[in-house]
Design a protein that fits this description.
Length: about 190
Amino acid sequence: MGRPINWQVVIDFGWPDQGDEFLPSRQFRDIRRRFCSWWDYKRKQGLVAGSICDLAIWEAPGGKHHVNWLLSIPEHALLEAQAVITKRMLKVMGKQPDDTMHQQAVYNLNGNMLYLLKGTEPDYARKLDIRPEDQGTIWFRRAVPSMSLGRTARERDWAAGRIVNSERTRGLQLPREKRVMDATGLV
């Protein structure tokens, strides 16, 4: 992909009422959809390249839902993106306390991912040397990858020649993460 994850947004959705357990997911999807619309507008202007690359990981320790949203945003667009995310959150959720959302740069993605993946099932977490912790009940998908990493995008990139799989690439060393997954049987 060639675009590093460099920005993290944490949005606190509080404790959803009984019977409204999907509200945090609906609100976040709306915030994300509105941010993607801004991204597409900037892409059409030629100010950003490609579709949005992000990852959302949900946690609900003690029933209090929050999302860790990791994004890849070009340096020149960071300040504007930060303001857009704040505006979209206010539009969807209304006026909230100041500590509802926190945005920061990501400097150590590997360490950050170990922290974010602590809610992984204990058997898998131990194989990846992650200390598992109960992160509460999530009524929807705990981890949501970017659609730009999905099957349709891969098929599109394959057809466009952006994914190279030929005799010249066979036998090249795989990334460390893939080798670890193969060694532990997680594939």
